[in-house]
Design goal:
With 565 residues, the chain is α/β, with parallel strands linked by helices. Helices cover 33% and strands 23% of the residues. The radius of gyration is 26 Å and the shape is globular. It starts with a helix and ends in a 6-residue tail after the last helix.
Amino acid sequence: MITLVFTSLLAGFLALFLYQRMTYPFFWVDLIYYLKLRRYGKTLRARMQQGIITYLDCFLHQAKKNPNKPFIIFENQSLTYQDVDRRSNQFANAFRTEGSLKQGDIVAVLMCNEPDFICVWLGLCKLGCEVAFLNVNIKAKSLLHCFHSCGAKTLVVGADLVRLVEEVLPDLKNDNMAVWVADHSSSSEGFNSLLDKVERMSGENLSDLPKVDIMSNFLFIFTSGTTGATCVLKKKFSASQFWKDCVKYNVTVVQYIGELCRYLVNQPMVPEERAHSVRLAAGSGLRSDVWKEFVKRFGRIKIREGYGLTEASIGFLNYTDEVGPIGRASYFNKLSMSFELLRYDTQTYEPVRTDCGRCLRAQIGEPGILVAPLTAMNQFLGYAGNKVQSEKKLVRDVFKVGDVYFNTGDLLLHDHRDFLYFRDRIGDTFRWKGENVSTTEVSEVLGHLDFIQEVNVYGVTVPGYEGRVGMAAIVFKQDHKLNGPKLYSHLVKTLPAYAWPWFLRIQTSLDVTETFKQQKVKLVNQGFNPEITQDPLYFLDISQKDYILLTVSVYQDIVSGKIKL
């Protein structure tokens, strides 16, 4: 009898196990990940009860616990936690003594990848200053916009970026901006040298670190950024040296954007690409075809593709080995993070609403706009100095009167297995070469040319490339025509290369919606294929510094990869 009961139980458990494997194959993976998040959340709440723990607090804890552990490896330099701690103290004392900086002051930092970038940042944190990181690729007009947005009155610029700042120095001086160059001397009038002052300062710990609360500003960020532990820095990314550096520095974890991985798989094979110790690659924007080739070619590296935003507390991580998704939308995941995918109008990209004014959820397998409810624990504090743009990111009365959701501006797809896939970025931005491109900014820049009457900027896909490359539909002023060399020269002076429109579409008038918004969907779908549209198309030929007519032959060379973008 006992044997019969045991056999029945065993058969029941086996049947249940097989049912689970067939219908919910990721049940245990989802549950384990959810329990980990719960444990991390519990630990975080316990720490917060002891007071606010800042990034600076974490660094100082590590500096005290592991003073001799390498913190930054840069070229032939290796700086320990203690080294960085002492040098950041010197920067803090120099800024306080020579620059009269104090808690609450906003300081913009325009520096390339180098150890002093981090030392400057930590030094300013030790004074309680609010730091704004500036993208080193931006041009003069955008630089001024960043200053006005964040309200900075002090700028720290790297020695190799002085020329960029010189272009706008008169404007900075009119705004009473103090400019410090991270060098021992300054050959340009209007710049204060910094390193000569720093090296005269004490490296001892500051006795009066600032007190902060949960609402204190930490950073102003104008571009994506990441942080690590021991961190290996390079001045610039080098695909040919990547695996050699991984072996040289015994790297175990790498961070990527999709384009970085594509560059690597397109490189010739080297012995180091299979002799490294890298076990994990984490990032976003990795195409499925590149993903498969990356894993196949470079060894047993776990890929952890994710999705996240700086502005709001919404993010996903693909903690499985499934190729392609950015995360999971299982029952357990929704317990830990609330979000919705909304149906949208394919012409306006606005959420579709019922006769009662409420939004509709996207169906399984249907792309939808990712939105997240705003709560006390998930807030959106807005964009610095721009209330209009901040309000545009909110969707109100979504499912009931009074509710408010943050609109990510991204299209995601939830499939029948509860995987989430990134589909597209909508609205006024697209991504190219790992950078976000503002169509509004590019349109404004092109609009300054005397032969252009109207312009509509958008991004189009190119086979073999991640993201979308810039394209512009242009209407000329009466009795004017395209001046390619002038346009190219203007782009070089005003925009970083990743924001340039590589393709032009010449039109007699621009398509607009019923509410007079520029129509992009049709243009995006037609792309740059000269066999689809009758409008004249042009392609940016860097070698000629001019836009040339985009023929079928040129088009074929681009899509086949013979012509590189």
